[in-house]
Each structure stands twice: as structure tokens, then as C-alpha cells.
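Second attempt. The first submission of Fe-S oxidoreductase had a stray character pasted in from the spreadsheet, which I only caught after the job came back as garbage. Lesson logged: always re-copy from the clean sequence file. Corrected sequence (115 aa) follows.
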Amino acid sequence: MLLAPPLARAGYLYATLVGVVWGAVLSTGRIRRVDGLFVFTGVPTWAFSRGGSCIGGVYLTDTNAGPQVLEHEAVHRLQWQKYGLLFPLAYFLAGSDPLTNRFEVEAGLEKGGYR
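This time the job returned cleanly.
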């Protein structure tokens, strides 16, 4: 039931709102929209994990915003849309090793900079 499209969509929209607020407060760089993904650069590295983090339809990073990375993050955006607020839990349960985390594999390890 939690994956029902209306609930997942509400969770995705809520996460996107949180990401936009988080990015607007912390970003010192360029803010743009690429293929439906809000991209906030100049975010301090303590505010995200690895090279950047996708929260709903928002990608937060310091400088890691090349075309391949954004393609990778666009897949995470779709995962957020599918799972809503269950996505962070599902991602956590998939494990911290990106090489075996099914969500990272689906998004493309090379595009995400993992290979």
C-alpha cells in the first residue's frame, strides 16, 4: 500500500521540497534544472554523501555535476518517484557498497563514477 502511486508521489514531492529548501539554504554555486532534476552546486561536502546526494527530484553536490553523473542521478530521481519516502530505507537495506547496491547498479555504476 505504501508504494501505491498516490502515496509514492506524495513522498517524492515532499522529499523534493525538502531537497530544494536544503539546497537553497546551503548552495553557493549554480542552481539549474536538467531534465526535471534540480541541481544545486556549491553545497558543502558535509551536507551530502559520496560525490552528491539525490533527494526526491533534487541533486546536491559541490562540483560533481557532469553530464554522465546527472544521467545517473536522473535514474535515482525515478527511483524516488517509484518508492516515495520508502526509498531511503530501501536504499539503506540494499547496502552501503555501491558495487552491490541494486539502486546504484540500476543507475549505472560507471556514470555514477563508481568504476
